[in-house]
Amino acid sequence: MKPLVVYLDTSDLIAMREADPEAIPSAVFRRLMGFKNDGAVIFPISFFQYFEYMQAADAKFTDDRYQRARFLLEVSGGWSFPYYEDLLDDSVPQQGPYWIPQESLNMFDVDGLARDLRARVIKLVAERNLANRRDRRKLASPTGFQEFLRNNPSTTAHVQDDYSDKLYSDVVARDVVIKYLLGEIDRNSANEIIRSRSLTFGSVYHWFFEHGRNDNPMTDKLRELKRRWEDRFEELRSAMMRAKEIAQEVAVLEKSIASGAAGQLKSDLRQELLIELKRQKASAKNFASRPIRSPLVDTMRKAPGASERFQLIAVEVLNAIACEKVQFKPSLLGDLLHSVYLPFCDLWRGDRSFSHILFTGKVPNAEKVVSKLQDLPSEIEKKLGRNSPR
Asked: Is there a single domain that holds both residue 285 and residue 152?
């Protein structure tokens, strides 16, 4: 039987790691890890969970961040959801760094690293006159380059030292690329090694926050997304208000015609008008409850291959937010981005206020939402068909 897929809220990770041993979050954590160790449940990590949980910190908190990284690995077991813009309709969690955007994963491809290393070696050989012109020409062919790598390990070692300021320096230093160029390992094996070594939870924190000093995507990226979506969100509000006005106008006209106020009209014409008004009323009512989908979908679609399930769930959540008349702020956008994984999991944890929006808005898959952390083990038991312990 396939394991259940459960999406945790970032607050769950914080609470379970930091709670006292006798506190409820700690008891919940022990039960969740029991499910995981039995192979009954997996808890995949997403891009948003990672950056919300890790957060950039001063050097004095570095050890804490690496402890957080180890905790993430303990909880997830290395399982992850694809980055939200890489979701396909049939996406499933996988073991590996698939929470990272595909365009970033492509940077850690052995073919690209091999081309870069080869160019560096050829440049160094020419600059230091390490080979005559005839031998340098041999470097242009795969077999000639392989022969040079075998016979000149000191040259390649020097080139590897130049990678000290690169994000993938540890990969090159471990000879993965050289082994690939020599034909000792294939492309899939090389990429698996590269990504497993360079894209761990801890190493990503190191080169993203410590080495690269990048801004946290969960703060700056959300501000950018909020600016991009605010106008669409206001369009949504206006559309809902106008839809309600249309429905009211149609109802008034319908009542007027039915009461005979337009008695001078021929009966067949009046009947046709009634049918048309009923159709408009039904359309307006539906429009009021599910307004303007296409502009919102267009806003969220980054590439033609974007997941339809992702687009639909995002639009449904936006509609639910608008119906609740909640202020559209960055933290709410963060909840929305977490919610795009609803169709891809069996249970989904969210805070009470956002869970309320999903329930009342009748968002598809809302039945998977668990609004309290302490209720999660019993909900898992139900899904597994077990009796919860008393």
From this structure: no
